Amino acid sequence: MSNPVxxxxxxxxxxxxxSDDKVTKEQIEILLRAAMAAPSAKNVQPWxxxxxxxxxxxxxxxxxxxxxxxxxxxxxAIVVCGVPxxxxxxxxxxxxxxxCSAATQxxxxxxxxxxxxxxxxxxxPRPERVAVVADALNLPEDVIPLNVIPIGVPDGQEKxxxxxxxxxxxxxxxx
Length: 175
Fold this sequence. Notes:
alpha+beta
């Protein structure tokens, strides 16, 4: 495929194994710019992003979250949080999940594009995981962590997968 955007999308992979190479502040800022370029309902952008780079905090989250053990080796993480009250009147607060999910996908695609590895580890809607992250990061009561994205330089173990399945496509209407 010669289109670089499609190539990046199709090469994106969940990276759980990282080298010791550091992630720079400039690289994190690129990921955050990509996140905030995501679409959101009525452009209310009901999100906040907590960047975690302190080893102690990464290890604490790795220890407490059952499916985020790769944080022990990651050099950074971005916690994508919903801020439902930003939706204001006339926009259902529930759209924060879709909006933050779009921002998350942009982070994952941007990481792939700049040679970093990342993986979406789910937090919301699991109350016990939400509580762990909210407590660890001292989040305000009205801020809900959707996920934690461990970030690092991939060690090359993970490879992209062809996930296309024709049986999941329905043309025109369900028969």
